[in-house]
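Mods, move this if it's the wrong board.
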Amino acid sequence: MTLFDDDRQPRKTAHEIGADLTLLSADELSTRIDLLKAEIERLNAERERKAGSRAAAERFFK
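Not the wrong board. Structure tokens:
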């Protein structure tokens, strides 16, 4: 066993950008759309949090 051995299973991606969509049902597509919308909201919230932190730091160091 080496230092870099990892017994964890690789994480399954819920959706891969550019993946073939032809075999997915309308319900599966709706599920993926909902997942992606939730991820977009999460990304936007993190971006806003970081922008707020940066603005606070800029005000502090002026």
